[in-house]
Amino acid sequence: MSNNLVDELLPVRAPLVSQAAAAIRTRIKTGRWQLGDQLPSEPQLATELGISRGTLRESVRLLISNGLLDRRHGVGTFVARVPRELPSIDRGIDELFGATDAIAQMGYAPGVGTCEITLERASSVVAGELRLPKQARVCHIKRVRMADERPVILCEDYLPADVLVERRIRVEDVRTQILARGGSLYEWLEQDIGRPIDTALTRIEPVVATASTARSLDVEPGTALLRLRQTHYGMDGTEILYSDNLHNSNVMHFHVVRRRPRPTF
Q1: Beta pairing partners, 239
Q2: Which of 107, 110, 139, 180 is least buried, going by the fewest C-beta atoms within 10 A?
Q3: Using an 8 Å Cβ cutoff, are 141 and 155 in contact?
Q4: What is the pLDDT of residues 188-229, one digit of tens each?
């Protein structure tokens, strides 16, 4: 393994903190540090990874929050558990988060597998969700999101083609722009399109992987998946984006905090 983070094979444009966390995870997974071992000192490890001590502290905090590391004040940082073969990402379903943030905040390196952009006529479902005329043209963005180079989400997103026309963005440039944002559609919409997402109405349902979906997510056909269909709105309540995403339920886990209603008098 390389002694410098820059030389290691990590997803393109993953945030440096996420890359550092992924590098530490890899060292634990490959047995360099065993369960209960103490990590090298902060200056030594920062030098080894070729990053600043501030970046290292942030990456260590990510891994502590994920239960991989344990910091003992006045002593050092220790390996608290060995990562499983598959990534494990757990988020509250009441949070509106992008895949990039969800993956990175759990200490994995986010990336993009395939990314295909097409202009097409909206289906009745897409047109209805975005309140578009029948057969209106939409930009269809199909991506496979990766965590530590493992496919975890198959994303199919749709936005009105008129948005690209307004911003004078050619469809052939969309892929490059999205990848330049680390694969984050939310970042692209906010920074390049000027349409930040504020809220989303989400519908969740269990489905099984078709042969085509199984190939995209590297699972067996018939594997249980979680389907999230989301209509995204801007701050003014305008429909911006419709998403139909399939999550590998062996990797992506969602939870919600439920409270009993309080009596009213």
Answers
A1: 233
A2: 180
A3: yes
A4: 999 999 999 999 999 999 999 999 999 999 999 999 999 999
pTM of the complete model: 0.70
Q: How far is it, in rounded angstroms, from Cα 39 to Cα 19?
A: 17
DSSP structure class, residue 38: B
Q: To which residue do tokens 């993956």 refer? A: 103
List beta partners, residue 77: 71
Closest CA to 228 of 257, 202, 253: 202
Using CA atoms, how far apart are residues 87 and 252, in angstroms rounded to an integer?
8
Which residue ranges form the domains of the chain, and what is each CATH number? 5-79 (1.10.10.10), 89-255 (3.40.1410.10)
| Burial (Cβ within 10 Å: 0-12, 13-18, ≥19) of residue 19 | buried
Question: Most distant CA pair in the chain: distance in Å?
Answer: 66
What confidence tens digit (pLDDT) does each residue in 89-131 have?
A: 666 677 788 888 878 766 678 899 999 999 999 999 999 999 9
